[in-house]
Design brief:
Layout (H helix, E strand, L loop, with lengths): L2 E6 L6 H7 L28 E4 L23 H11 L15 E5 L10 E4 L11 E5 L6 E4 L5 E2 L10 E2 H13 L32 H11 L8 E7 L6 E7 L4 E6 L13 E8 L4 E5 L7 E7 L4 E2 L3 E3 L7 E6 L2 E3 L5 E7 L6 E4 L2 E2 L1 E6 L3 E5 L8 E9 L2 E12 L4 E6 L7 E7 L5 E8 L3 E3 L4 E3 L9 E7 L5 E7 L7 E9 L6 E10 L3
Parallel strand pairs: 2-3, 2-4, 4-6, 7-8, 18-25
Antiparallel strand pairs: 1-5, 5-6, 9-10, 10-13, 11-12, 11-14, 12-13, 14-15, 14-16, 17-19, 19-23, 20-21, 20-24, 22-23, 24-25, 26-27, 27-32, 28-31, 28-33, 29-30, 33-34
Helix pairs in contact: 2-3
Length: 519
């Protein structure tokens, strides 16, 4: 049975940890092993070098790096940061001699099971205690990495603000656990600490680079680079599915397998993206292979399972066709955003991102290469049309002025907090810009105010838990107020707002938002 092992503590290490971190160099423990290794064969537990990402990160800063990097084709945002962290452990990383290479397999649709080799953010709290992330072990038949949602995650690539945590650095640490490494005690508490120290330094960016102790631990498990290890140095020919790719390098056996990124959602036991029994040529320096239909942008390997050898992973932009964007449905929506919009086009990749007027939209679903459904982000102002763009490594498609923001409907929503007694809840009232509004919270029931013709959610205004707050809806047609939740446990109350559309007695009532109070 898998055990959930917490591997990385929070920014503020406990005093007992600090006492261990700063021991004298002569007494440093160095790397530790947790047992097991990731196989590269086709029998037993099979092929376990793959990595995939369920990109469910809720923070905008986790996916705001949309700059294409040719060394990591097909990856943007959080997946790009995670692929970089995997590459740090690779045999061909500059200045590092390691007999290991992760196989990038792109996107997953879910976090999968505990041995599907996935990285994702946990939907619910990890339970506090300063835990940033953990990897589920044992690793003999795979692993799963979970990042905790209590923290604000950042995909880099440069400096990460002090109030965020670096995805690349934290994942580099956790991938060390998936390799079979335990915690190190070398240099902990400084910017030169080993990746495998139990707590990050600062925001975690220093953990992007493996140190000598990390390499020593890795080589203790997987050995040094053998003289016969295949090496890919360049690609030629075509990278289009169904066409011939030429792989140049050295140490290719007479017959090899060629493995591509195939975008599998989970480790299902089969080995994805493999073309078997391909002959080499020119004295083991060249392989010609037909790019399979399931190949995706990512990496390609020369694989010799009989010898337990895997080459370096070489970047390959398979099937790189630019996207087109032809239609939005609907092509307008409220200024506050949040409504569902369907995009239709061609050549959409599974890492395509969508922006409205330069603001990222949250992707809900993808329909093959022709459809993406998103939640529209908030807009810049009423009656303003913005460009909509679909961006991916192969290019960007733009629908100029394709979406128009309209006035907000009058409504109220809880925008932060929970209805637990004693906690703070933030309500936001929406409506047309530059109008007046009011909001109150009261017991379940209704009240008809004869003077204005409004029907409220509570019995009488005198029973309101919270008096009316006068609000001014600004240029974005919204205003927020907070309420410290009060009442009896399991009591039902309602939030109700109204928006004054014009001067005088013309009002528009918002929705009635029912809540249950919990201790």
């Amino acid at each position: 049975m898998k055990t959930r092992t917490k591997r990385l503590l929070g920014l503020q290490a406990a005093a007992v940890v600090a006492a261990v971190i700063f021991v004298a160099p002569s007494t440093l423990i160095g790397f530790a092993l947790i047992g097991g290794s990731l196989g590269v064969g086709s029998g037993g537990n099979g092929y376990q070098r793959d990595v995939r990402v369920d990109n469910n990160f809720g923070d905008v800063s986790a996916n705001d790096n949309q700059t294409v990097n040719s060394s990591f084709p097909g990856a943007l945002g959080a997946p790009l940061a995670i692929w970089k962290s995997a590459k740090e452990w690779a045999s061909d990383t500059v200045g590092v001699q390691k007999n290991f290479d992760f196989d990038w397999q792109g996107s997953a649709t879910t976090a999968g099971s505990t041995n599907d080799n996935t990285v994702s953010e946990q939907p619910t709290s990890c339970g506090g205690g300063g835990v940033l992330a953990f990897t589920e072990t044992p690793i003999a038949d795979g692993w799963r990495m979970i990042l905790c949602p209590e923290w604000t995650w950042d995909d880099g690539p440069g400096t990460v603000p002090s109030n965020r945590i670096d995805i690349q650095g934290v994942c580099a640490h956790e991938l060390g656990h998936s390799l079979g490494l335990g915690h190190s005690n070398v240099g902990c508490g400084s910017s030169s600490q080993a990746i495998m120290c139990p707590a990050i330094f600062g925001t975690g960016t220093s953990a992007r680079t493996v140190k000598a102790d990390d390499i020593a631990g890795l080589n203790a498990i997987y050995g040094g680079i053998p003289a016969s290890k295949p090496l890919i140095t360049s690609l030629g020919g075509s990278t289009t599915q169904g066409q011939t790719l030429i792989i140049n390098g050295s140490n290719f056996a007479a017959t090899v397998n060629v493995k591509f990124t195939a975008g599998t959602a989970a480790n299902t036991g089969s080995i994805p993206g493999v073309v078997f029994s391909v002959p080499s040529a020119n004295g083991g320096t060249q392989v010609s292979v037909t790019v399979p239909a399931n190949a995706r942008p990512g990496n390609v390997f020369v694989w010799e399972p009989a010898l337990g050898l895997l080459s370096n992973g070489f970047p390959i932009a398979v099937g790189s066709q630019p996207p087109t964007l032809s239609m939005l449905a609907p092509n307008s929506g409220p200024l506050r955003g949040g409504n569902q919009v369907d995009l239709t086009g061609t050549n959409f990749s599974d890492v395509a991102t969508v922006t409205f007027g330069g603001v990222a939209a949250s992707v809900l679903t993808r329909t093959g290469s022709t459809g993406i459904t998103v939640f529209a982000p908030p807009g810049p102002g009423e009656n303003q049309a913005v460009d909509v763009q679909v961006s991916q490594p192969s290019g960007t498609a733009t629908l100029t002025g394709g979406y128009t923001y309209t006035a907000n409907p009058a409504e109220v929503a809880i925008t932060s907090g929970t209805t637990t007694i004693g906690t703070t809840v933030t309500f936001t009232v929406y409506g047309p810009v530059n109008k007046r509004a009011a909001l109150a919270v009261g017991p379940l029931g209704t009240f008809f105010h004869a003077g204005t013709g409004l029907t409220f959610c509570w019995h009488t205004p005198l029973r309101a838990r919270w008096n009316f707050n006068q609000l001014n809806l600004g240029a974005l047609g919204q205003a927020s107020v907070t309420w410290v939740v009060a009442g009896e446990a399991l009591e039902h109350v309602n939030a109700q707002g109204v928006v004054q559309i014009v001067a005088g007695s013309q009002f528009e009532q918002t929705n009635c938002l029912q809540m249950s109070l919990f201790p």
